[in-house]
Amino acid sequence: VLLATGGGHLVYLEVGNGTIMEVKHVQLEYEISCLDINPIGEDPYRSQLAVVGMWTDISVRIFSLPGLDIITKEHLGGEIIPRSVLLCAFEG
C-alpha cells in the first residue's frame, strides 16, 4: 500500500499475517497530486515501482519499491498538471 498524506509525505506499507507495517516514509518537497503502484512485470501481486505526480513543479517521478528511491523525474512542461497516473506494460 502506498499512501500520500498532506505536506508531501509518501508512506509505503506492507500488509500481511494480520499486520500492517510501515516499510518506508519519505518527505517530498511538494504536494502529491496522484500515485500508482500497479504491479507490472513477473510478480502480479507485488509492485517494484511507484509513480507519483506532483502539483507544484508539474512533474511525474518514478520510485523503486520498497525503498522509495527515486529512479527518474520527468517535468511535464506547460500547464499540464498530473491528476492521475497508471503504470502499464505494453506488449511487444
TrEMBL record:
Coiled coil residues, start to end: none
InterPro entries according to UniProt: Beta-prop_RSE1/DDB1/CPSF1_2nd, RSE1/DDB1/CFT1, WD40/YVTN_repeat-like_dom_sf
Residue ranges occupied by any RSE1/DDB1/CPSF1 second beta-propeller domain in the UniProt entry: 1-87
Protein name: RSE1/DDB1/CPSF1 second beta-propeller domain-containing protein
Pfam hit, one: Beta-prop_RSE1_2nd
